[in-house]
Write a structure and sequence with these properties.
about 650 residues; alpha/beta; five-stranded mixed beta sheet; elongated
Length: about 650
């Protein structure tokens, strides 16, 4: 490989000295020089000001002028390379003056044949390289900071309007207006959620590229996690008439150490792709362990009976923005980010992902990850396609009472039942509304009535709506809770009129389920309200919302007030301080990260100091720095867009 020549400018008015200097430079084996000779001081300043040379040798005596003047002007005009001053005789005063003016060294011409000349050239160029590397590093760091700020700003700017779009859509779906615009509102909501999913993927990919994505590992109940994923994806599979099975090929550790959120994200993404590209048949997820390089790894295979992937596409699908389906036909949508993110996440989990596929014969993805040291961990043969085992999941509350769970899907019945029994209640099951009526009637005759009935809406033989009407006719006074995947389709008022007390959406949110048990069983002597509501506490909470975007502030206030929380709005840092000065009786203050006149984190610090009883919640369009959150002892962080589920969880804490 050819070495790039070092561009050297020699400013010398004596031709003999020019020739001698060139000879000495040719003798330096460490560098190859491209020498440009200038004898005129003015021309030298002009050329140096262009900053096109790597190094300059500058004679002190240039006719009637002196090199110090050229040196000073060149430095002032922006020449960034090293300049070595040459002179005919040694002079300490001149040496100091040259160095003060910006020269990197001072050489007497009769020393040019010695090793000192070669050393001076090498050191000058080495210092220049070090300085160039430092400047490049600083430039790269500045660009990274600028990129981070841009991503944070972009995330905030996109999530804020999404909060308004999704929030107002949720409110409309729960209003009487939804009766006339069910389908249209559903389209808006689904596409809004799709935009949010794409935004999350792009931000994840950006974090990975910037090496800023951090994993948060903790001990996780593998059985419970798999059951959660199965419950969620089973709904999508049933919608397409597909069978979804989860199996374990051997006893698996009950507890593993992973980032549960990212692990769930990987499984959901791959299973969702399998459902998306399969029109008939089944998707089978199998799990096992295997020793690789003296470490026991956790493996999963996700096999579908779908269209398959062409060989030429298989090498591309783990790259960002590559789509499996034909882009022009757009038979299946997507941005081509999911599998690229899965691949990067698995790499950070010390694992990998591979693919076996053929056109017309389906696809099989195999993933591996390191589950921590699982030697000695209790293991069980899991049959997740039959009965999700939730016995190791600790309930946050303990209650007493009798509960009936009614659902035509056995796995969902058992999943909900395990969650309820883990809280202490006694559980019975029914497969449809008619069977539920029989069990309720017998329980009343035996003097052991049910306290709560969790009832699926859509079932064979008799659905949940018809069953509720009959239950109320029979005189059942307990709470009836609707379990439905259609909670976003404006059926709340209809269900309330039929006799339902509350609604929990599918996949079942365990937090809402346990809160419902607490409200209905522990406080079951209190009168029940028949109107559908998500209120989680009878006490009137008060929140202060600090948000400069008027639309986002208004929808968040409406959502909170629909949950029974009195909410005041402050539009800026100063406005917040003024509100708190006149009224500090708030349970929580929700602080937007980016305010027009200050930082939400700075405001959180001030509130902590002056109003320590108020809990602080940071609301951000991008995940804030966890170190700063920990330093400021922030109680909670909410990521936009804000929705009813997030706010319900916020009130519960």
């Amino acid at each position: 490989m050819l070495t790039k020549a070092t561009k050297l400018l020699l400013v010398e008015d004596d031709e003999d000295d020019y020739i001698l200097t060139c000879d000495y430079l040719e003798q330096l084996s460490s560098h190859t020089f491209d020498i440009e000779w200038i004898s005129d001081p003015l021309s030298a300043v002009e050329v140096l000001s262009k900053n096109e040379h790597d190094i300059c040798l500058l004679d002190y005596r240039l006719g009637a002028s002196d090199g110090l003047t050229v040196l000073k002007q060149a430095v002032e005009n922006g020449f960034a390379g090293p300049i070595i001053m040459l002179t005919g005789q040694s002079d300490d005063a001149l040496d100091s003056a040259a160095l003060d003016a910006g020269a990197v060294d001072y050489l007497v011409k009769n020393e040019m044949s010695s090793s000192r000349f070669a050393r001076s050239i090498r050191y000058a160029l080495a210092r220049r390289d070090v300085e160039d590397e430092r400047l490049e590093r600083l430039k790269a760091e500045a660009e990274n900071r600028s990129k981070d700020r841009f991503l944070a700003h972009l995330s905030h700017e996109l999530r804020t309007p999404l909060s308004s779009i999704l929030g107002y859509t949720e409110l409309l779906m729960q209003s009487d207006f939804s009766e006339h615009a069910n389908n249209e509102l559903g389209v808006i909501y689904r596409n809004g959620k799709h935009l949010l999913s794409l935004l999350n993927d792009v931000l994840d990919l950006s974090k990975i590229a910037a090496d800023k994505l951090e994993l948060s590992c903790s001990n996780v109940n593998l059985d419970s996690l798999m059951a959660d994923v199965f419950t969620l994806m089973r709904v999508s599979a049933l919608d397409k008439g597909l069978s979804l099975r989860f199996e374990s090929l051997q006893p698996l550790p009950l507890i593993i150490n992973v980032d549960a959120t990212r692990f769930r994200q990987i499984l959901i993404n791959i299973v969702n792709n399998a459902i998306k590209f399969t029109d008939e048949g089944e998707i089978v997820v199998r799990a096992w362990t295997e020793v690789v390089n003296n470490r026991e790894m956790l493996f999963f295979s996700i096999k579908d009976s779908g269209v398959g992937i062409a060989p030429e596409k298989q090498a591309l699908i783990f790259k960002p923005f590559e789509q499996i389906a034909d882009v022009e036909s757009r038979s299946v949508g997507g941005a081509g980010l999911g599998l690229a993110i899965c691949s990067e996440l698995l790499s950070r989990m010390q694992g990998s992902i591979s693919l076996e596929s053929a056109i017309g014969n389906g696809s099989k993805f195999t993933i591996s990850l390191y589950p921590g040291n699982i030697e000695g961990v209790e293991r069980e043969l899991l049959k997740l396609d039959l009965t999700p085992n939730m016995q190791h999941k600790t309930a946050p509350c303990q209650v007493t009472g009798r509960v009936l769970v009614v659902d035509d899907l056995r796995d969902l019945r058992v999943l909900v039942g395990h969650m309820i029994s883990s809280a202490g209640a006694k559980v019975d099951y029914a497969e449809h509304g008619k069977q539920a009526l029989d069990k309720v009637s017998k329980a009343q005759q035996n003097g052991t009535p049910f306290d709560i009935i969790f009832l699926d809406i859509h079932m064979p033989v008799m659905g949940g709506k018809e069953a509720t009407i009959e239950l109320r006719k029979m005189g059942f006074k307990g709470a009836i809770i609707a379990l439905t995947a259609a909670t976003m389709k404006g059926i709340h008022s209809e269900l309330s009129a039929l006799g339902f007390n509350d609604v929990i959406g599918k996949p079942v949110d365990s937090t809402l389920l346990y809160q419902c048990l607490q409200d209905k069983l522990i406080n079951n002597n209190q009168p029940e309200e028949t109107a559908i509501k998500h209120k989680v506490s009878e006490s009137r909470a008060r929140f202060l919302l600090v948000e400069d975007d008027a639309d986002a502030a208004q929808i968040t206030q409406l959502l909170l007030e629909s949950l029974g929380v009195e909410t005041l709005i402050a539009s800026s840092y100063v406005h917040c301080l003024a509100v708190l000065k006149s009224d500090s009786q708030f349970d929580k203050v929700l602080l937007d990260m980016h305010l027009p006149d200050g930082s939400g984190l700075e405001l959180a610090s001030y509130i902590k100091q002056h109003y320590p009883k108020i809990q602080r919640v940071i609301v951000s369009g991008m995940e804030p720095d966890p170190v700063k959150i920990k330093q400021l002892e922030i109680e909670q962080v909410l990521l936009k867009p804000i929705n009813l589920s997030l706010l319900t969880d916020l009130i519960n804490v």
